[in-house]
Design brief:
Strand order of the largest sheet of chain B: 4-3-2-5-6
Radius of gyration of chain A: 16 Å
Low-confidence stretches of chain B: none
Oligomer: heterodimer
Order of helices and strands of chain A: EHHEHEHEEEEHH
CATH class of the largest domain in chain A: Alpha Beta
Number of domains of chain A: 2
Low-confidence stretches of chain A: none
Strand order of the largest sheet of chain A: 4-3-2-1-5-6-7
Structural class of chain A: alpha/beta
CATH architecture of the largest domain in chain A: Alpha-Beta Barrel
Largest interface: A-B, 38 and 48 residues
CATH topology of the largest domain in chain A: Aconitase, domain 4
Mean pLDDT of chain B: 96
Number of domains of chain B: 2
Shape of chain B: globular
Distance between the termini of chain A: 30 Å
Mean pLDDT of chain A: 94
């Protein structure tokens, strides 16, 4: 049983991938620590400086609809959030492209309806990863989430898709992917 | 099953799949390009492997950064070339033989009906035009597919668009795309879904139009867009297809989450207002608005058919002195064909500048970007603030026909009025 406690940053609807990683970093190498320095720079003026988001010390992001949307497939988005210490993102819905990248990196993107309505930036949340619940310590309100698919959990437990595949190659089961 | 479900079932060795299921599918081709490709190969190598699963089916294209505008990008391209050559990749479309990756994948026959193809760029949805499942993926997925020939996919719920009626003069697939964008809303409730386009107006559409339509499904938030293969598809693929293909169609009893009908007879030239893709209006609502830059190119609207319409409108005319127009053929093949047919001559005579086939200004990181105060009338695919460069520029999105007609007056113009001025 795992419980993770930390501070959340609450986003509005439609936080776009191209604002999480701004244009001039699209062609940079994918690197968690490097991508984290300017992550979220386009989302809010307060983050538009080096380490602007990291310094907030957030563990979770809470969002509403279509988090990380707008149609960019670059992995810098997820790498940058992880590098900034984000351990999970809770939202009503996610963009498909970044939902996929998050699964491949083992960063939980957890679908939880209406959670943004019950949280404010700076609230302490407790995420019970086994129960799939999120409690807001300020209000006591508990939010439920859509269970994570077994494959997604397996990839996360491996530390991401690359490691998942590495293990399969090492133990000779790579041809069994189905 | 729907066509997308059938393709996922067949390419994962199953008789049946259902929406929501996660399956590993065999990938027919994998595309990667200049600014992410080196990282794909490095990740692939980190698996302890040296040879990709099939050298003929990992397709490498230089498109975002060619010719390099900066020393930094020139160096990046050199590393990219070295790593592609080190892996002895059969199909490397580098500067001189280049094009926008999605155009290359379709025109060179690397995507085929009934197969799954993936690419490390969001507009890989374009591949649905030939009846393939085309999906955008990240570097990690590309590396895994290079190693295994496989990719995990979630079987999406299907939504059907039945497009009826007759196309009106100067109304293009782009107008339908923007019309649907306005109707369904940008990245709205079509997230994760597959969009299947059917009906008489789709059957009447050429491959260029089908590519435009499927291309922009990613901007609706959808997983993929698809048009079932027909005679138009087969005629297009003959002589270019790299491999066998299978004609697949949805079963008559296939399940759809929703079915929408659009009568294209009632769709006119359409414009998306600056900043939001779904803020679309019929051109009549914005006639007379001034702009100073015009841009026609991209994986959405940089094809021969697009330049044909423009040349027809601009023949013997002059682009307004206050408008700078850049046109960018989507590939060298498109460039040559548009040249042979005289379209480029007509457009250059009218005062347009022709740029080298590439993504150009579309992603705001290459040539022809927008500066402060610019108002751009673009036939590209995205118009959010800063997309083409400055955050202080405005981008209107529309069809090549609207761009051409408007460029003459220097203000937004209904192309159906062409010939009356």
């Amino acid at each position: 049983m795992a419980k993770i406690t930390g501070k959340c940053w609450v986003a509005s609807d439609y936080v776009m991938a191209y604002d999480i990683i701004i244009q001039r970093f699209w062609t940079a190498p994918i690197d968690k620590a490097e991508n984290a320095k300017w992550v979220m720079a386009g989302v809010s003026p307060e983050f538009n400086r080096e380490n602007g988001f990291i310094e907030g010390g957030y563990t979770f992001i809470v969002a509403a609809h279509n988090f990380a949307g707008g149609g960019k497939s670059i992995e810098h988005v997820v790498a940058g959030l992880m590098g900034a210490g984000i351990q999970a993102v809770f939202a009503d819905s996610f963009s498909r492209l970044q939902f996929r990248n998050a699964i491949n990196y083992g960063l939980p993107f957890i679908t939880s309806k209406n959670i943004a309505k019950g949280c404010q930036t700076g609230d302490e949340l407790v995420w019970d990863t086994d129960e799939g619940t999120v409690m807001n310590l300020r209000t006591g309100e508990v939010f439920h989430s859509v269970p994570v698919a077994p494959f997604v959990a397996e990839v996360a437990a491996s530390g991401g898709l690359m490691n998942f595949v590495r293990h399969k190659i090492a133990n000779g089961t790579i041809h069994e992917l189905n | 099953m729907t066509i997308t479900e059938k393709i996922m079932a067949r390419n994962s060795g199953r008789d049946k799949v259902v929406p929501g299921q996660l399956v590993w599918v065999d990938v027919h081709s994998i595309m990667t390009m200049d600014y992410l490709g080196e990282q794909c190969f490095k990740q692939f190598r980190s698996l302890g492997l040296n040879e990709v699963f099939d050298k003929d089916r990992v397709i490498c294209v230089s498109d975002h950064l060619v010719p390099p505008p900066t020393e930094q990008f020139a160096t990046m391209l050199n590393r990219w070339r070295d790593i592609v050559k080190a892996h002895d990749i059969t199909y490397f479309y580098d500067l001189g033989r280049q094009g926008i990756a999605h155009q290359i994948m379709v025109e060179q026959g690397h995507v085929l009906p009934g197969k799954v193809s993936i690419g490390t760029d969001s507009h890989a949805n374009t591949y649905g035009a030939v009846g393939a499942v085309g999906n955008a993926i990240g570097v990690t997925d590309a590396a895994v597919a290079m190693a295994t020939g496989k990719c995990w996919l979630r079987v999406p719920e299907s939504v059907k668009f039945v497009i009826k009626g007759q196309w009106q003069p100067y109304v293009m697939a782009k107008d339908l795309s923007l019309h649907i964008m306005g109707m369904m809303h940008w990245n709205g409730h079509l997230i994760y879904k597959t969009l299947e386009f059917t009906g008489e107006a789709i059957e009447a559409l050429d491959m260029a139009g089908r590519m435009t339509l499927c291309n922009m499904t990613v901007d609706l938030g959808a997983k993929n867009g698809i048009v079932a293969p027909d005679q138009t598809t087969e005629a297009y693929l003959k002589g270019v297809a790299k491999g066998e293909w299978e004609m697949i169609a949805s079963d008559p009893d296939a399940h759809y989450d929703a079915i929408y009908e659009v009568d294209v007879t009632n769709v006119g030239p359409t414009v998306a207002l600056p900043d939001k893709l779904d803020d679309t209006v019929p051109v009549e609502k914005v006639v007379g608005r001034k702009f100073n830059k015009a841009f026609v190119g991209t994986c959405t609207n940089g094809r021969v058919e697009d330049f044909a319409v423009m040349a027809e409108i601009l023949k013997g005319k002059q682009i307004h002195r206050d408008v700078n127009m850049i046109i960018v053929p989507a590939s060298q093949t498109v460039y040559l064909e548009a040249m042979k047919r005289g379209y480029l001559q007509t457009l250059v005579e009218a005062g347009a500048a022709v740029d080298t086939p590439s993504c150009a200004a579309c992603a705001g990181i290459h040539t022809g970007v927008a500066g402060d105060g610019d108002i751009v009338l673009s036939a590209g695919n995205r118009n959010m603030k800063g997309r083409m460069g400055s955050k202080n520029a405005q981008i209107y999105l529309t069809s090549p026909a609207v761009v051409a007609a408007s460029a003459i007056r220097g203000e937004i113009t209904d192309p159906r009025e062409t010939g009356t001025y």
